[in-house]
Design a protein that fits this description.
The complex is a heterodimer of chains A (about 625) and B (about 300). Helix content of chain A is about 30%, strand content about 25%. With about 625 residues, chain A is α/β, with parallel strands linked by helices. Chain B folds into two domains: about 200 residues, Rossmann fold (3-Layer(aba) Sandwich), CATH 3.40.50; about 80 residues, no CATH class. Helix content of chain B is about 35%, strand content about 15%. In chain B, the strands form two sheets. Chain B has a six-stranded mixed β-sheet with strand order 3-2-1-4-6-5, sandwiched between helices. A four-stranded antiparallel β-sheet of chain B has the order 8-7-9-10, with no helix packed on it. In chain B, β2, α3 and β3 form a beta-alpha-beta unit. The longest helix of chain B is centred in the N-terminal third of the chain and has 19 residues. Chain B is globular. Classes of the chains: A alpha/beta (about 625), B alpha/beta (about 300). The interface between A and B is large, with 85 and 73 residues.
C-alpha cells in the first residue's frame, strides 16, 4: 500500500493472504472517541460518513439507507448519512437522537468506538456519560456559525472529564467555499477560549462530512491546509494506555477467587502501573503488606501484567483482602480519606438533597456518603460560578462529600478509575450523579477524634440506665408530641434521665434557619440526629417527636447510633383522622394552599416498613401507647 | 520499564471479564444465557478466563425452541460439560403442548418459544441477572443498549428509563422484582468475534463452515432441511448445496449462504469481502421497520 492510497480501502491482503491479514489485524490498537455537536453541526452525517468510508456499511443497509433517505431524509435525493446512526424508532420520528449510542468501525490500524451523543436538554448527562470512557473528543463546529455557546459547553465538559486529545473539526467547509480565512478565524477564536479554560492543545481540521473533504485523505478543495485529515489523525494519535503503565501499580479488588482452601486469588482490572511476581504490595485501606506470588491465567502463569488488563493475582501471605480494597505498590501507596472535594454532575430527575445519604461507588467499592450543600454551581455555557443550595438534573457543581468510612482514592486528574465515582439514590436505585474527586479535605486527616477519659458508658452507669433514642415518626396531628410527653413523664416518675426533642421546639432555636423544602427537612433531621447522638453519649434516654417523613433520613439517624439504641416508633394515624383532628389548623391551611410542602398533602410521607414499635392511634389512646413504649424500653 | 501496548482484542477482553466479574460480585443469582452461536461461544470462553481456576460460578441456560439445528444441540451439551457448568434447558411447556412451530405459526413461534420461554425460565429459577451475548453493532436499536439493561418485573425494557453508565462503574442495584440483562460483549463487532475465535482457538458449531447440505430455496432464503419435520411444499425437493451459516437460530428461520469457506480463515475472508449484513439471514428482522426494538420492549432478548 502506498502512502497516498486511501487508508480505509479494503486491504488486498484479505483476498490474497488471509493469514497475513489476520496476523496484522490482531495487533490493532483501539481508540474510543466522542463526537460533540448538535444535529445542525452535521455530527450524525460525519459519523455516517466515517462508517461509510471505512466500509462498515453493507449493501442491504445501503439499500435501506437510500430508501429511507428519500422517505424521511433531509438531503433531498442524496444519501442522508445521518439516518445510519439514528437508532430508536421514537427518535427517528421526532428527528432527534435521545441518548448515547455507540458505533464501531475499523481501519487497518485501529478499531474505533464512537460515542455519539445528542444535542438537546439532556445533553450534559449524555455527553458526560459518553466522554467518561473516551480517549479523544471531536468537537464539531459549523463553519458558517463559528464558535457558539454550545462549542464552549462541549469543550468545557470534555476538559472536565479529562480528555486530553481534542480535535476541532470545522465542518461544512463546502458551504463557505472552502475559505481559508473563515477557518483561521474560527481556530483563532477557539484557541483563545480553549486556553482560558485550560485546554492546552487541540488539532483543528477543516472538513465536510457531507462531501467527504479531509476525512480519509487530503482534499483538493483545501490546498491551503497541510495538517492531517481526520481519519489518519484518529489512527495516529497516541492512546493514554502506555502512560498509565508508567504510573505506580494500583488494582481495585473486584472479586476473591476461592475454588478451594489452597487457592485465594484476587481478581481485578489493573487501574495503573505494571505488576510482576515478587513485587511488594500493600492492601488499602488496611495497610497490610505482602508480595505478589503469581499472576494466574487460563493459559498459565504470566510474568507481567499491565494497566488495562483484567487479571487474577495471588499473594505470598494470607492477609485480609476483599472486594473494594485496593492492592497498590508497597512503596507508593494511595491516599486514604473519608472527606473530599468533588465536582459533581447531577443526572437524576430528583435534585440533590444535601445531607441525605447516597450510595457512592468508586472502583469496586460501594460506601454510604453524604454531599454537603454545593460550594457553587457552574454555568456550563459561560463557566461562571453561581451560588446554589442544590443541584438539578444536568447541573454541575463543586461540593464536599463525606463517606461513612475511609476509602483509598486518587484525584480524578491522576486516575479515572480511582477518582471517578457515581452516586446512587438509595430508594430508587437510580444513578443520581457522576463525580470526580478533586482532593481530600485535610480536616479529615487532621481533626482526630479526641478520646475523653469519662466515656459514654461511664455517663450511662452514673444514671443507672441504658441510653436510647425513642424516635416517634408520623403525620402532623398523629399524636407524636402528646405520646412523647406522656412517655417522658412516666419515665421521670421511674427516675430515668430523659430529654424530649420536639419538632416545633427545635425550629425555634437550633433549626430556626430551616424551612420545609425537602433539602431543609433532611438537614433538620440530620441536626436532630446529631444532637440525639450527643445526648445518648451523655447517657440520656432521648425522646423525639418529628414528622421525619423520609425513610432515608430515619435510616441515617439509626446508623449514627449504637446498635439497638435507636427505636423507631411509628405513630400510625390515617391521614383522614389526622386531618379531621387538625389541632393546629394546619391541614386547613395546606388544603387552601396557604401552606406549601405540607406532609400528607403536597409532600410525601414514607411510612416505616419495619418499625420497632407501631402505635395504631385508632385503637389505642395516648396513655396505652405510652405504656406500650415503656414496656418495650424497660422490659 | 517495559511497555506493552494492548491490542483492541486485549482491551475488549479485559472489559468483558471486568463486566462478568462485576456481576458475580454484586448479583444474587446470575445465569448465562447460552444460544450455542459464535457470540455465546466467545462469551463462555471469556467467563472461563474471568474465573479461572474456578469454573464460572453460575449455570448456563439454553432457552430452547426444539427447532435448533442438530449440530447446535450436540455442541451445547459438550461445551457446558467442558466448562464444568450446570446446563439448564428450558422449553416453554405451553408452546410444546400447542405444537408451536415456525412453519404454521409465523412470529408466534419466536414469541412463544423465545420471548415467553425466556421470561418463564428466568421467573422459574429466580435469576436476577442474565448474561446475554448481544452486541451493539448487530442492529441500530442495539447501539444505545446499556451493558446493564434493566427490565421491569414483567420483563419489559423501557428505552427511556435506563441508567447512565460511566467509566467502568456499573450500578447493579435493583429494586424488588426488577431483573437485569447484562451484555459483556456489547462493544465487540462481528469481525472482533471472528478474530478472537481464531486467536483463542474457540470451538464453534460446524454449521459456520461450508459443507454440502440438503437445502431448499424459499421466500428468498436458502433453508436447510435439518430433519424430517421440515414440510416440503409442492414441487420442492431438497438439493445439496455447499452452504454455511453466518448466524444460527431455528433452522427453518435461518437462511444459509452459498459458500466454499471450509476453514475459519476462509470464513473470515469471506466475511470481510462480503456485502450484506449479518442479520439479513434471519427472517425475524424483516417483519417491520424497527422490529427488533419492538421485540426487545416486549422482552425478547
Amino acid at each position: 500500500m502506498t502512502k497516498n492510497d486511501p487508508i480505509y480501502k479494503t486491504d488486498a491482503l484479505i483476498a490474497q493472504d488471509i493469514d497475513a491479514y489476520l496476523e496484522a489485524h490482531q495487533h490493532k490498537t483501539m481508540l474510543r472517541f466522542i463526537t460533540c455537536g448538535s444535529v445542525d453541526d452535521g455530527k450524525s452525517t460525519l459519523i455516517g460518513r466515517l462508517l461509510y468510508d471505512s466500509k462498515m456499511i453493507f449493501e442491504d443497509q445501503l439499500a435501506a439507507l437510500e430508501a429511507d433517505s428519500k422517505r424521511v431524509g433531509t438531503q433531498g435525493q442524496e444519501i442522508d448519512f445521518a439516518l445510519l446512526v439514528d437508532g430508536l424508532a421514537a427518535e427517528r420520528e421526532q428527528g432527534i437522537t435521545i441518548d448515547v449510542a455507540y458505533r464501531f468501525f475499523a481501519t487497518e490500524k485501529r478499531k474505533f468506538i464512537v460515542a455519539d451523543t445528542p444535542g438537546h436538554e439532556q445533553y450534559t448527562r449524555n455527553m458526560v456519560t459518553g466522554a467518561s470512557t473516551a480517549d479523544l473528543a471531536v468537537i464539531l463546529i459549523d463553519a458558517r456559525k463559528g464558535v457558539l455557546t454550545q462549542t464552549r459547553r462541549h469543550s468545557y465538559l470534555v476538559h472536565l472529564l479529562g480528555i486530553r486529545n481534542i480535535v476541532l473539526a470545522v465542518n461544512k467547509m463546502d458551504l463557505v467555499g472552502y475559505d481559508h480565512s473563515v477557518f483561521d478565524e474560527i481556530v483563532a477564536e477557539y484557541r483563545a477560549f480553549a486556553q482560558s479554560i485550560g485546554i492546552a492543545e487541540f488539532t483543528p481540521i477543516p472538513i465536510s462530512g457531507f462531501k467527504g473533504d479531509n476525512i480519509t485523505g487530503p482534499s483538493a478543495n483545501t490546498p491551503w491546509y497541510d495538517g492531517p485529515s481526520l481519519l489518519p489523525h484518529l489512527e495516529a494519535v497516541e492512546v493514554d494506555g502506555t502512560a498509565d503503565q508508567e504510573r505506580p501499580f494500583r488494582m481495585p479488588v473486584q472479586w476473591v477467587n476461592r475454588p478451594n482452601l489452597d487457592f485465594r486469588g484476587f481478581a481485578g482490572l489493573i487501574a495503573s502501573g505494571t505488576v510482576r511476581p515478587g513485587d511488594s504490595v500493600r492492601v488499602l485501606p488496611s495497610g497490610k503488606t505482602s508480595k505478589i506470588a503469581r499472576i494466574v491465567s487460563l493459559e498459565g502463569d504470566r510474568d507481567i501484567a499491565v494497566a488495562g488488563e483484567s487479571v487474577t493475582l495471588t499473594l505470598r501471605d494470607e492477609i485480609d483482602c476483599s472486594r473494594g480494597q485496593v492492592i497498590v505498590a508497597a512503596q507508593e501507596p494511595l491516599e486514604v480519606a473519608d472527606q473530599f472535594e468533588a465536582t459533581i454532575v447531577w443526572m437524576d430527575e430528583n435534585e440533590l438533597l444535601p445531607g441525605r445519604a447516597y450510595w457512592l461507588k468508586i472502583g469496586t467499592q460501594t460506601v454510604s456518603a453524604t454531599v454537603a450543600q454545593p460550594k457553587y454551581e457552574v454555568n456550563v455555557n459561560t463557566q461562571e460560578h453561581l451560588a446554589t443550595k442544590t443541584l438539578d438534573l444536568n447541573a454541575i457543581g463543586v461540593a464536599n462529600i463525606t463517606t461513612d468510612r475511609e476509602i483509598p482514592f486518587a484525584s480524578y486528574a491522576e486516575n479515572r478509575d480511582l477518582g471517578g465515582f457515581i452516586l446512587i439514590d438509595k430508594l430508587t436505585n437510580q444513578t443520581a450523579a457522576a463525580g470526580m474527586i478533586n482532593f481530600a479535605l485535610r480536616r479529615a486527616q487532621n481533626i482526630h477524634w479526641q478520646a475523653t477519659d469519662i466515656g459514654r458508658e461511664h455517663h450511662a452507669n452514673m444514671k443507672h440506665q441504658k441510653p436510647a433514642v425513642l424516635w416517634l415518626t408520623g403525620l402532623s396531628g398523629s399524636g407524636k408530641s402528646t405520646v412523647a410527653n406522656i412517655v417522658e413523664k412516666k419515665l421521670a416518675r421511674m427516675n430515668r434521665h430523659t430529654f424530649l426533642l420536639d419538632g416545633d421546639n427545635v425550629r425555634h432555636g437550633l433549626n430556626k434557619d430551616l424551612g420545609f423544602t425537602e433539602a431543609d427537612r433532611v438537614e433538620n433531621i440530620r441536626r436532630v440526629g446529631e444532637v440525639a447522638k450527643l445526648m445518648t453519649d451523655a447517657g440520656l434516654i432521648v425522646i423525639t417527636a418529628f414528622i421525619s417523613p423520609f425513610r432515608a433520613e430515619r435510616e441515617m439517624v439509626r446508623s449514627m447510633m449504637q446498635p439497638g439504641e435507636f427505636i423507631e416508633i411509628f405513630i400510625d394515624t390515617p391521614l383522614e383522622v389526622a386531618e379531621a383532628r387538625d389541632v393546629k389548623g394546619l391541614y386547613a391551611k395546606a388544603r387552601s394552599g396557604q401552606l406549601k410542602n405540607f406532609t400528607g398533602i403536597d409532600s410525601p410521607y414514607e411510612a416505616p416498613e419495619t418499625p420497632e414499635i407501631r402505635i395504631d392511634t385508632t385503637t389505642m389512646d395516648a396513655e396505652e401507647a405510652a405504656d406500650l413504649i415503656i414496656a418495650r424500653l424497660i422490659p | 520499564m517495559s511497555q506493552k501496548t494492548l491490542t483492541h482484542l486485549q482491551r475488549l477482553e479485559a472489559e468483558s471479564i471486568h463486566i462478568l466479574r462485576e456481576v458475580v460480585a454484586e448479583a444474587e443469582n446470575p445465569v448465562m444465557l447460552y444460544s450455542v452461536g459464535k457470540d455465546s461461544a466467545v462469551m463462555l470462553h471469556l467467563a472461563k478466563k474471568a474465573f479461572y481456576p474456578s469454573p464460572p460460578p453460575f449455570p448456563l441456560m439454553h432457552v430452547d425452541t426444539t427447532w435448533k439445528f442438530r449440530d447446535m444441540y450436540a455442541l451445547r451439551d459438550k461445551a457446558a460439560k467442558a466448562a464444568g457448568m450446570e446446563l439448564i434447558v428450558h422449553q416453554n411447556p405451553e408452546a410444546k403442548a400447542n405444537g408451536i412451530n415456525p412453519f404454521d405459526h409465523g412470529s408466534l413461534h419466536t414469541d412463544m418459544w423465545k420471548t415467553e420461554g425466556l421470561k418463564q425460565a428466568l421467573d422459574k429459577h429466580g435469576f436476577d441477572v442474565a448474561f446475554g451475548g448481544a452486541r451493539r453493532d448487530e442492529e441500530k436499536s442495539r447501539a444505545k443498549e446499556r451493558v446493564f439493561s434493566f427490565r421491569s418485573a414483567n420483563h419489559r425494557w423501557d428505552p427511556k428509563n435506563q441508567r447512565p453508565e460511566l467509566w467502568r462503574l456499573y450500578n447493579a442495584k435493583k429494586s424488588k422484582g426488577e431483573s437485569v440483562r447484562v451484555f459483556p460483549i456489547s462493544n465487540w463487532t462481528e469481525l472482533d468475534i471472528w478474530q478472537y475465535i481464531h486467536l483463542e482457538g474457540i470451538e464453534i458449531v460446524p454449521l459456520y463452515f461450508s459443507a454440502p447440505r440438503p437445502t431448499v430455496e424459499r421466500d428468498g432464503l436458502i433453508l436447510m432441511v435439518d430433519d424430517d419435520r421440515f414440510p416440503l411444499r409442492e414441487g420442492e425437493e431438497p438439493v445439496m448445496r455447499s452452504v454455511r451459516f453466518r448466524t444460527l437460530g431455528c433452522y427453518p428461520l435461518t437462511g444459509a449462504v452459498e459458500s466454499e469457506a471450509q476453514t475459519l480463515q476462509e470464513v473470515i475472508q469471506e466475511m470481510l469481502l462480503t456485502t450484506t449484513s449479518e442479520r439479513q439471514g434471519r427472517a425475524i428482522d424483516h417483519d417491520q421497520a424497527a422490529s427488533m426494538e419492538k421485540k426487545k420492549q416486549e422482552g425478547y432478548f
